[in-house]
Amino acid sequence: MQEDKTHFFDKPENVKRLLMVFYACCAILVILDFVLYRKAYHSLESIKAFYPIYGFVGCVLLVVIAKWMRTFLMRDEEYYEPLDEADKELAMSKQGKEENVGH
After folding, report:
1. Which run of H or of E encompasses 18?
2. pLDDT tens, 85-96?
3. Could you give the C-alpha distances from 47 to 26, 38, 44, in angstroms and in order?
4. Which of 23, 3, 20 is nearest to 12 (CA)?
5. pTM for this one?
6. How far apart are alpha carbons 32 and 24 in whole angstroms?
C-alpha cells in the first residue's frame, strides 16, 4: 500500500531552482554589504564582505573539525551487535570497493 508520490525535491530541476534562488540571495546580500552603511563595533567589521567570509570560514572549520573528530569517535560495525556471516561478507565487499575508489 505504498504510494509512488513524487515530492517537490524529488525532481532535479526543482533542486536546481532552489539552489539558484539561494545563490541569488547570497549574492544580493554580499552586494548590499558594499552599498549599505553599517556601524562597525570592531575593526574587523569594517572589512567589506566580512560576515560572508567569516561564515564561510566558520563552515569550513566545522567540516574539518568534524572529519578530525570522526577518527576517534567512530565505532566498529560490531560495536553494538556482532555481525553474522552474511553481514561480514557484505561489509568486506563494501570495504574493498571503498579502498579501490581512491586509486
Report:
1. helix 12-35
2. 777 777 777 776
3. 17, 11, 6
4. 20
5. 0.56
6. 12
C-alpha distance from residue 20 to each of 14, 16, 17, 33, 74 (Å): 10, 6, 5, 20, 35
Q: Return d(Cα 51, Cα 29) in angstroms, integer.
A: 10
- String of DSSP letters for 32-59: HHHHS----SSGGGGSTTHHHHHHHHHH
> C-alpha cell of 9?
525535491
Tell me the per-residue pLDDT of 38-73, one tens digit each, with 9 for 90 and over: 888 888 888 888 988 999 999 999 999 999 999 998
Which triple of cell numbers denotes residue 41?
A: 563595533
Nearest to 38 by CA among 51, 27, 28, 26: 51
As given in the structure block, the three cell numbers for residue 91 are: 561489509
